Amino acid sequence: MNNPFETIDARLSNIENLLLDIKHTPTETETTSTDPEPFIYGITGLAKFLKVSLPTAQKIKNSGRIPFSQAERTIIFRKVEVLEALSNKKNRR
Question: What would the pLDDT profile of 38-47 be if each residue is shown by its tens digit?
Fold first, then answer.
């Protein structure tokens, strides 16, 4: 007669392997996103991203053209929204 613990161990190993395969399979959003960091943190980050001075980045933020979120005291911009807002501004000219 087979040892029941060997059978249980084999089945658990199969389950573990299946779970690892699921965990490491890239999702649709992971495969379509090429940017490892989709967010810009703070006015300094926005200035660096746009390659403008800090006061200019502050003016852009205060103008309301670019949507942002705020977590505690940190301002967070989504790169996609920043680029969209800037391209919309260029198209209106």
Answer: 889 899 999 9
